[in-house]
């Protein structure tokens, strides 16, 4: 989707019938389409190809010969057994960037295990460190492992295209859920690898910075991030608790971490005395990063969210006008092209065969009749 935002022509290959699993991940549905599918599939054309059919395999081979990038998420080795592995397609198109996204990597003891966000989140430790301090492990509210892997894959594809520009050769990219999420453990991993410190859950708090967390207010929550000693002094000034700054046990962040329970109890009691909006107003100009914990309605009512173009609307062929989160990045010298809506399953099969592969109508009709491909009749 991100590559499509940047202008790439993206052809999404789906299996006839059900297609992408996320098409069924609802409710909610918008018309016949799941909101989940609509959220991450803009700027793509959908073709339905049966990879169990020999002529279907041939279509993918021909597409690989004329495309720059192939992204696949099959179990390692499965596409090679169909004649669609990297070595096989590289022989046809030496410049092909072939990006394999799997659960655990292309080799190793778990390579043949299926990859799902929740499982990789658990295995990688992400779930272990997420949740309230005295509670059970918690799955993050969105598929952060899937998303991180997609972002890593995007960067890897761009780097591979740059490398190809220099060498003329493509490359096989091994991108997987486990590696992506473990790499995102950052300081949690470093604490263990260097200091032998096992991680624990901290809820909204931070294990190494105090105060750096959410607090309950009279009518909601506010997050305060005092990352240095001066910001702590400013917090105390806003809260009218300046006496705390004179206490030796709070003079440095290291000391505040060691004495967190007493300090956080005092701060928590103070924050409960006023409403979130009042606290936000009092913190304006203080130099302390603060923000409310918004619900999703509040997120998309936020003036900065609107200003940043994060509400994107488009006309879907069956669902009508839909709205999805827009691109996160802006560029100074160009704008994103107008987005195309997420495709119906098999919406572009005939178009791609005709325009990209230059198939004649006779060949296309034969493929349709043989069920090697299917075309969505709505379109």
Task: Please describe what this structure looks like.
With 379 residues, the chain is of the alpha/beta class. The protein is 38% helix and 15% strand. The chain has helices at residues 2-5, 35-39, 54-66, 78-81, 86-92, 117-123, 144-167, 177-183, 186-195, 229-238, 253-258, 260-271, 276-283, 296-299, 303-307, 349-355, 361-370, and strands at residues 10-14, 29-30, 33-34, 44-49, 69-72, 97-102, 171-176, 212-216, 221-225, 290-292, 311-316, 320-325, 373-374. A three-stranded mixed sheet has the order 1-4-13. A three-stranded parallel sheet has the order 5-6-7. The chain has a three-stranded antiparallel sheet with strand order 8-9-10, with helices on one face. A hairpin with a 3-residue loop joins strand 11 (311-316) and strand 12 (320-325). The model has no long low-confidence stretch (mean pLDDT 96).
